[in-house]
């Protein structure tokens, strides 16, 4: 862990670069991230400029070259070729495009999801069942999870379902922050001829990874969670050698069939947001990238988890194996209504959190620190959990 992850003065100086509305302490930084004050100012300048110049600038300059440089910088962020990425509005749009347009399925084939996938990903895979005649295999992971148990669950599924052709895999689950052993699962999938579509929405910006090392050829990402971009920016990735396995989106003709950008819907994008992306990427690198951001939020996570895991009636759902967690973690108050307890965290302690549902373990409370979160905020959370777990039902 970089030494400055615990340097409170360093991170509170960084926090001063972000405007925060007065109100509850925000421990729900996983929905979307903040723009820095500098990024916000430039974004608003670009909004005003595009409003003034309208199609003259967009047609003559942005579409004729400036967007190509922005795309090149994006590709450099994840160390891939520019020809392998296409902008979308968010990870959901990217993943839906990949799932919808994957063309290697035949009626009777099987596709795989787990209880930890994002709901729109589950919905897209079930859509394949209705429209492509495939069977959806749905797994429920056991908790507490371990590296070996997660991998074995998939190995068992591959062995038991010989018609499997495609699976969704979430790098960082939005419910508990569990980090999946992607490389090991993808390797096992390849052995059985199963393609993986990776949901990288929460991974990009807080986890260092290399797609080639992970063995991933299809993926969708967000830029407005941990990178610091304006809302409505995401992208998809398709390994160039696999481009033909994803059809152009609904007959998309604005780009040639050989262009990855044909694999998602063509529309008028948020030009000001795209124009701001170079500054966003500069700031991300200047902060130390995913390594520094991840180390900081991991430290904040460790601070609260280490103090509440042993409390009677408190169940922390995210393991402590450093391979399997990031800054996001989730817990439950035993025998309580989790939404009611989240409401009490807000009402009694001024702590804003969120509940997550849809996994086999039921409802949980997700805690997601951000770059503006202080250690004092985390200590306040620990106090709140400690007092609430002793309170009457």
Automatic annotation (TrEMBL):
<dbReference type="InterPro" id="IPR015421">
    <property type="entry name" value="PyrdxlP-dep_Trfase_major"/>
</dbReference>
<dbReference type="Pfam" id="PF00266">
    <property type="entry name" value="Aminotran_5"/>
</dbReference>
<keyword id="KW-0663">Pyridoxal phosphate</keyword>
<dbReference type="GO" id="GO:0016829">
    <property type="term" value="F:lyase activity"/>
</dbReference>
<protein>
    <submittedName>
        <fullName>Selenocysteine lyase/Cysteine desulfurase</fullName>
    </submittedName>
</protein>
<dbReference type="InterPro" id="IPR000192">
    <property type="entry name" value="Aminotrans_V_dom"/>
</dbReference>
<dbReference type="InterPro" id="IPR015422">
    <property type="entry name" value="PyrdxlP-dep_Trfase_small"/>
</dbReference>
<keyword id="KW-0456">Lyase</keyword>
<dbReference type="InterPro" id="IPR015424">
    <property type="entry name" value="PyrdxlP-dep_Trfase"/>
</dbReference>
<feature type="domain" description="Aminotransferase class V">
    <location>
        <begin position="37"/>
        <end position="346"/>
    </location>
</feature>
């Amino acid at each position: 862990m970089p030494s400055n992850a615990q340097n409170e003065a360093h991170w509170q100086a960084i926090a001063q670069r972000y405007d925060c509305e007065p109100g509850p302490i925000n421990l729900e930084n996983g929905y979307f991230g903040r723009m820095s004050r500098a990024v916000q100012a430039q974004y608003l300048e670009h909004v005003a400029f595009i409003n003034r110049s309208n199609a003259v600038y967009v047609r003559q300059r942005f579409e004729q070259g400036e967007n190509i440089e922005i795309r090149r910088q994006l590709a450099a962020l994840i160390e891939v070729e520019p020809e392998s990425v296409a902008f979308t509005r968010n990870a959901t749009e990217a993943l839906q495009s990949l799932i919808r347009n994957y063309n290697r399925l035949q009626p009777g084939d099987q596709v795989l999801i787990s209880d930890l996938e994002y709901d729109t990903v589950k919905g897209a895979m079930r859509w394949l069942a209705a429209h492509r005649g495939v069977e959806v295999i749905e797994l429920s992971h056991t908790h507490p999870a371990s590296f070996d148990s997660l991998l074995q669950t998939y190995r068992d599924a591959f062995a038991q379902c010989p018609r499997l052709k495609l699976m969704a895999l979430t790098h960082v689950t939005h419910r508990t922050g569990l980090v999946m052993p992607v490389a090991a699962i993808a390797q096992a999938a390849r052995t059985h001829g199963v393609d993986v579509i990776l949901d990288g929405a929460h991974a990009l910006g807080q986890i260092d990874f290399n797609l080639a090392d992970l063995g991933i050829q299809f993926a969708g990402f967000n830029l407005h969670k941990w990178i610091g971009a304006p809302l409505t920016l995401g992208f998809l990735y398709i390994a160039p050698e696999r481009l033909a396995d994803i059809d152009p989106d609904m007959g998309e003709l604005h780009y040639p069939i050989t262009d990855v950008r044909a694999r998602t819907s063509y529309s008028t994008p948020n030009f000001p947001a795209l124009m701001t992306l170079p500054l966003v990427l500069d700031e991300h690198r200047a902060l130390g990238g995913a390594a520094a951001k991840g180390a900081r939020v991991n430290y904040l996570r460790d601070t609260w988890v280490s103090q509440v895991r042993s409390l009677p009636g408190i169940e922390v759902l995210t393991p402590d194996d450093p391979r399997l967690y990031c800054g996001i973690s989730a817990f439950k108050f035993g025998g309580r209504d989790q939404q009611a307890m989240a409401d009490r965290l807000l009402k009694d302690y001024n702590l804003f959190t969120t509940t997550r549902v849809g996994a086999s373990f039921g409802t949980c409370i997700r805690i997601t620190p951000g770059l503006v979160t202080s250690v004092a905020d985390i200590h306040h959370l620990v106090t709140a959990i400690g007092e609430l777990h002793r309170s009457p039902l």
